[in-house]
Design brief:
The complex is a heterotrimer of chains A (355), B (494) and C (364).
Chain A: H1 2-16, E1 28-29, E2 32-37, E3 43-51, E4 59-67, H2 70-78, E5 85-86, E6 92-96, H3 97-102, H4 105-113, E7 122-126, H5 130-134, H6 143-157, H7 165-173, E8 180-187, E9 190-200, E10 203-209, H8 213-220, E11 227-231, E12 237-251, E13 258-272, H9 279-307, H10 314-321, H11 331-335, E14 339-350
Parallel strand pairs in A: 1-5, 2-6, 6-7, 7-8, 13-14
Antiparallel strand pairs in A: 2-3, 3-4, 8-9, 9-10, 11-12, 12-13
Chain B: H1 8-23, E1 28-34, E2 39-45, H2 51-64, H3 70-76, E3 82-85, H4 88-97, E4 99-103, E5 111-115, H5 144-152, E6 160-167, E7 173-180, H6 186-197, H7 207-214, E8 226-228, H8 231-240, E9 243-247, E10 253-256, H9 274-303, H10 311-322, H11 328-348, H12 351-372, H13 377-390, H14 396-434, E11 436-437, E12 440-441, H15 483-487
Antiparallel strand pairs in B: 1-2, 2-4, 3-5, 4-5, 6-7, 7-9, 8-10, 9-10, 11-12
Chain C: H1 14-23, H2 32-39, H3 43-66, H4 72-115, H5 121-137, H6 140-152, H7 155-163, H8 182-191, H9 193-196, H10 202-205, H11 215-240, H12 245-249, H13 253-257, H14 270-300, H15 304-321, H16 325-363
Helix pairs in contact in C: 1-6, 1-11, 1-14, 2-8, 3-8, 3-11, 3-16, 4-14, 4-16, 5-15, 6-14, 14-15
The chains are: A alpha/beta (355), B alpha+beta (494), C mainly alpha (364).
Chain lengths: 355, 494, 364
């Protein structure tokens, strides 16, 4: 008897304790969020949510609103949306260059605190207005997927370093590194990656062009996979694809701030403007590539030191090598004492199907 | 227990009473015959007696041979069971079994009871439920003698013990408990014997009645005794040290003590190569988990956890759900209900009609409900696959349990999403942990973990590796065969 | 003391599951923050230290129990007399009880923050109590069975820790090794106390284990497994996050690591992880609460069913009342102090007393 009663009571309790549902077709999934500078001190926020239609390309709905605080944006946007906006499927966050120069910490903070936002959200900076960029119609799968695929395949197979919310936060908080984000730009009716935006803590202070990305990725992610073209002494051009690459940093025992970076690249020759490749040509190409690597890397590092930023993590190398350094408070002062030498070693192992 | 000490007049009364009761049935034949040498009375139930035996083996010698007393007759008749008795209870029992009663006067006693039973049983045929493609295809029938014959001829050893009981006040059904002495644990045998003897019921029509009466927990949806209709399976488990119970009138034999993993083991696994059968067992396991969890996970994810769906699949989910006006839970209930209806209806209809309805019902109703917008096609596929998967269990009773288990999971998923599914799983696990089969833990090779027993649980290891009898049975002879010799591979030249 | 019926006893190797499941519970999800505050990127050394310390304590527990008859309750009764002994027994019972409450409260907090913000705590706790009642009615065997499931079933989640965060790992974060002073590392070890306790429930279920001598090695293996798990998780956390700053901000560092997991058919793994984690904490709560219940039965001799119901009802109310941030912190602080006192200070004392008593008995 008691058993039956307790079952019934449990059952009724269960019916009472229902939770709020977020049934998938009743909610608006926000997939991209973009921030611009508004009038005065206001923030202009743009969100993109997909609209799924049967057997048709995915449509995207764009909404823009201006307000004071980042979170206010969201509640203001809710008032304009027929279905509740949810952020669980956020894929991409875009900041305009102006916003980036002012500092993006307060925006990223709200993303970090929200438990429903994943760590694989991609952050990026765009030239011009974010709203402008997001309002276009791109691709068959909707704006969010377009952006995401664009950046992701460049990260995994080309020269863009791997960046997402997690790496941004980690580099932001770490002593020995500074964050960097991809830089996008609208070109006619599609979007182009124009380089990398360099940050000092959370403010954007500089950028790198596309042709420098190869060296940047080699230094920062410690491996690179893309193709790079070099010009040799006799004017011929060779295009080399990196298959395997490594970066090692050696610290001088006597001077803990003296870094020697050794880069190793094993690559295939993809294109040569002259025709047949003889072994001496290979050697010359290797040497030319090494020289270019050293020259470009040193230039880049000098630029970093000048701007007092460290996007590639050389500081981390120094910190991890000597005792007691991690506890130092003013890391940036020490940063300027850093001396760097770069050595490169290139091996071209294959030249493709023909000689 | 004879009543020989009782007085004559009392005996006469009892026999008179007996005949008075019997004579009210028109199939009770009683008449007297005057042969050349003696006069005798014969009584029997026409519908229970085999006429050929009566004519050839009983009446013929009675008329042809010379006899004066019942004792002499007993030595003459070429029939196997003859009782000479004054016990009226025995007379009643044997007359109702199909014996022929011969006496020298109408109500005279002692009487001679001669066996003339009519054995009209089904012939031994193919197993219906546990059909295997390869391997023996004999199945049990309703007659207990045939069944015991099928077992005894496969185990021609002296240690095979059979003990019989009669259960059921009205049906007086005969039961046989079979085990191999020296291998089976005496405690198990005693438990079975005690429980069966304590049964109080008026009718026993099938072995399932016995199952319910002697189960450890008859409130549990899980069957605690395995039932089978294959004699080779019974022989196999007897050799392991378990106990079989045969019920007269039922082609299903009960086996105990049993564990959860046995319900997912088809006997065909032993006829195939061990790698193949291990693979099939693992598939069965996945099928069962899929069957229980698929619909609840669908409901949970769509209700609360949209973040789990990969972005590329979102399109399909959203467009298919958009047409449906009801929440996912009701959608799922509707589809599950339809499948149950189809199954029940298909079970009642005669075969030819049943198959058509099944196919038509499935396809038509399914497609039509998607078109009408009552369900989404993703859910339809999931429910159909889950229903299919629930029938992969080789034991019919377990298949029904799996079908039932889905509903509590569905309810918990509706309430608490994935957390609810885990909670429900905890309840299920606790229930299984508490369940015992004849006193032995139901989850045996899984918990308490016995590595040696796992060789025949989720995988089927080769016979040479299965050297020990299952530990849970605490048998008296733990080793089956000589381990080293079984692993030797003798070459032709040796 | 009455002998335990054979049908309630469990065999020796199961002690491995009992010890490991009580240690590996809710603390795993967020223990990094407190340790890293003191020991920085050398926190994994603190973890090794605490593991070794616990091994020593387990050995001491076995020595104490071998010299007594029955469980801790009878021992304290014998040693200190009726009043003081029972007083100490009640202290232990309250300790186990509060411990299990804290675990459940911690888990509900995670549920509220990560999964269901509007979770109705009363109803969820009521269902949970129903489940606990069902488990306890089955006896110690069912509790151990759950410990077994709670260890074996979530093992696959471990793989996700090892595979996915290591893609973003930077081993340099661990260097230089031993950059912190031994005091700092020791302070980190002290913070680990609350995450490794649970092995002292051995005191209460000692009479329920068959072949108790053989079980000692299993208890040590259980602790070893726990320590290894913690070390791996700590190292993965340090190389994945940037050692100091980010871990310090993250209240549940291990949970946040799940955000990076991406399987082909599932995107956000943390929901599956949190839901499965209830399988990990359930045996933890069960064993501790069972120990509290067992203690009450042994001291006061009330029937098991009444004790179960009253314990569950009290726990229901406590869990529902303590839901604010500050109360939870206070509870955790209390338990930390309790654990330090009762487990780490009192057990050696008990060991010495029984040692001396044993010597004295042998002389006379």
């Amino acid at each position: 008897m008691w058993k039956i009663l307790s079952f019934i009571m449990l059952f009724m309790l269960m019916l009472y304790g229902c939770l709020d549902k977020e049934i998938i077709d009743d909610v608006n999934l926000v997939m991209v969020i973009g921030y611009d500078v508004g009038e005065g001190n206001k923030i202009k926020g743009t969100i993109v949510a997909p609209e799924y239609k049967k057997e048709q390309p995915v449509d995207s709905k764009v909404m823009t609103v201006e307000s004071d605080l980042s979170r206010d944006l969201i509640s203001d946007l809710q008032k304009e949306s027929p279905a509740p906006l949810v952020y669980g499927k956020l894929q991409f966050a875009l900041y305009s260059e102006d916003v980036a120069k002012q500092g993006i910490e307060k925006y990223v903070d709200s993303l970090e605190r929200d438990a429903s936002v994943g760590s694989k959200v991609i952050l990026a900076v765009c030239k011009g207005e974010a709203k402008n960029l997001l309002e276009g119609k791109y691709g068959q799968q909707g704006t969010a997927t377009y952006f995401r695929n664009l950046v992701e395949h460049n990260m995994h197979r080309e020269n863009l370093p791997i960046i997402n919310l997690h790496t941004y936060l980690r580099n932001f908080r770490m002593k020995g590194k500074d964050p960097s984000l991809p830089l996008l730009e609208k070109k006619n009716d599609h979007v182009k990656i124009t380089g990398l935006a360099l940050f000092q803590k959370d403010k954007m202070v500089g950028e790198i062009e596309n042709d420098q990305l190869f060296y940047f990725k080699l230094l920062s992610d410690r491996y690179v996979k893309g193709i790079h073209t070099i010009t040799m002494d006799d004017g011929n051009k060779a295009s080399i694809e990196s298959i395997r690459s490594k970066r090692r940093a050696n610290i001088d025992e006597k001077n803990p701030f003296h870094l020697t970076i050794e880069l190793e690249i094993e690559g295939y020759l993809r294109e040569y403007s002259e025709g047949t490749v003889r072994p001496e040509i290979l050697k010359k190409a290797e040497k030319a590539f090494e020289k270019e690597i050293v020259k470009n890397s040193m230039e880049m590092i000098d630029m970093f030191k000048e701007k007092n930023i460290d996007p590639v993590g050389l500081g981390e190398e120094i910190l991890s090598h000597s005792r007691g350094l991690r506890k130092v408070k003013n890391w940036r002062d020490i940063y300027s004492k850093m001396e760097v030498d770069v050595h490169a070693d290139v091996k071209i192992t294959e030249t493709g199907v023909v000689q | 227990m004879s009543r020989m000490y009782k007085q004559n007049w009392k005996r006469k009364d009892s026999i008179e009473k007996l005949f008075a009761v019997f004579r009210s049935s028109t199939d009770f034949i009683q008449y007297d015959v005057n042969t050349s040498h003696i006069k005798y009375w014969i009584s029997y139930f026409e519908t229970l007696v085999d006429v050929n035996i009566l004519n050839e083996n009983i009446l013929k010698p009675i008329h042809s041979k010379y006899w004066q007393s019942l004792e002499e007759l007993k030595n003459i008749l070429p029939v196997k069971d003859i009782f000479l008795t004054i016990d009226t209870d025995l007379m009643k029992e044997k007359l109702l079994e199909g014996f022929v009663m011969i006496s020298l006067s109408e109500y005279g006693s002692p009487c001679l009871l001669v066996n003339a039973k009519l054995n009209k049983a089904r012939e031994v045929t193919l197993p219906e439920v546990e059909f295997t493609v390869i391997g023996p295809k004999e199945a049990f029938v309703e007659s207990i003698e045939s069944n015991i014959n099928l077992i005894r001829k496969r185990l021609p050893i002296e240690e095979l013990r059979i003990r019989t009981l009669k259960i059921g006040r009205l049906t007086q059904t005969r039961l046989a408990i079979i085990y191999i002495e020296g291998i089976a644990d005496e405690e198990n045998v005693f438990t079975v014997w005690q429980r069966i003897s304590n049964i109080q019921i008026d009718q026993v029509n099938d072995s399932s009645y016995i199952t319910e009466m002697i189960s450890d927990n008859h409130n549990s949806p899980f069957p605690q005794l395995l039932d089978t209709e294959r004699p080779d399976r019974v022989v196999s488990i007897l050799a392991e040290g378990k106990i079989a119970v045969i019920v007269d009138g039922s082609p299903h034999v009960l086996i105990g003590p049993t564990t959860l993993v046995e319900f997912f083991a088809s006997f065909e696994d032993y006829f195939l190569n061990w790698i193949l059968s291990s693979f099939f067992r693992i598939i069965r396991l996945f099928a069962v988990s899929f069957s229980i969890l698929a619909t609840p996970i669908y409901v949970a994810v769509l209700n609360y956890h949209y973040e789990l769906i990969p972005t590329d699949l979102l399109n399909n989910f959203v467009t298919s759900r958009r047409e449906v006006p009801v929440p996912p839970f009701l959608e799922a209930l509707f589809l599950e209900g339809t499948i149950e209806l189809l199954r029940e209806a298909g079970a009642r209809l005669p075969t030819k009609v049943g198959q058509t309805i099944g196919i038509v019902g499935g396809i038509v109703i399914g497609t039509a409900s998607v078109e009408a917008g009552l369900t989404s096609n993703i859910l339809l596929i999931i429910v159909a696959l889950a229903a299919l998967a629930s029938f992969t269990t080789p034991v019919y009773k377990m298949g029904n349990t799996i079908r039932l288990l889905r509903f509590p999971f569905l309810m918990f998923a509706e309430m608490y999403g994935l957390l609810g599914i885990v909670l429900c799983f905890c309840f299920l696990a606790t229930h299984l942990l508490r369940l015992t089969s004849l006193g032995r833990p139901f989850l045996e090779p899984i918990y308490p973990p016995r590595i040696t027993d796992l060789k025949d649980a989720f995988l089927r290891m080769p016979f040479s590796m299965m050297n020990e009898r299952p530990k849970q049975l605490r048998t008296e002879q733990p080793k089956r065969m000589d381990e080293e010799k079984s692993r030797e591979n003798k070459d032709i030249d040796e | 003391m009455a002998q335990i019926a054979e049908r309630h006893k469990v065999s020796a190797p199961l002690v491995f599951y009992l010890v490991h499941s009580t240690q590996f519970g809710i603390g795993v999800l967020g223990f990094q923050k407190n340790v890293v505050k003191y020991a920085g990127h050398d926190s994994w050394i603190s973890v090794i230290l605490i593991g070794l310390i616990v091994h020593l304590y387990i050995w001491m527990i076995y020595q104490i129990l071998k010299r007594s008859s029955g469980s801790l309750m009878t021992l304290q009764h014998d040693l200190f007399g009726k009043w003081v002994g029972n007083g100490l027994n009640i202290v232990w019972i309250i300790y186990f009880f509060l411990g299990s409450c804290a675990i459940l409260i911690g888990y509900i907090e995670i549920l509220k923050v990560w999964m269901f913000e509007d979770l109705n705590i009363w109803i969820y706790t009521a269902i949970f109590m129903g489940l606990l009642y069902y488990i306890f009615n089955g006896g110690f065997r069912v509790v151990t069975g759950f410990a077994f499931f709670g260890v074996v079933l979530p093992l696959w989640i471990f793989l996700t820790f090892l595979i996915f965060p290591t893609r973003f790992a930077d081993l340099q974060h661990l260097l230089p090794i031993m950059d912190h002073s031994p005091q700092e590392i020791f302070m980190g070890t002290m913070q680990m106390v609350i995450t490794v306790i649970g092995f002292e429930t051995l005191f209460l279920y000692y009479p329920f284990v068959k072949n108790i001598d053989k079980s000692q090695k299993w208890a040590h293996i259980g602790n070893l497994f726990t320590t290894c798990s913690y070390i791996i998780i700590m190292i993965v956390s340090i190389v994945y996050y940037s050692a100091e700053e980010e871990i310090l901000r993250n209240k549940w560092a291990t949970l946040a690591m799940w955000k990076i997991v991406e399987l082909p058919f599932v995107e956000r793994f943390e929901y599956i992880g949190i839901a499965s984690w209830s399988l990990v904490i359930l045996p933890n709560i069960c064993v501790m609460l069972w120990s509290a219940k067992r203690g009450i039965t042994e001291i006061f001799g009330i029937t098991e069913k009444k004790v179960i119901i009253s314990v569950l009802v009290v726990m229901f109310f406590i869990v529902n009342v303590i839901v604010d941030k500050e109360d939870i912190q206070l509870l955790n602080k209390i338990i930390n102090m309790y654990a330090l006192g009762i487990v780490f200070c009192y057990i050696p004392v008990l060991y010495l007393i029984t040692f001396v008593r044993d010597l004295w008995k042998r002389r006379t």
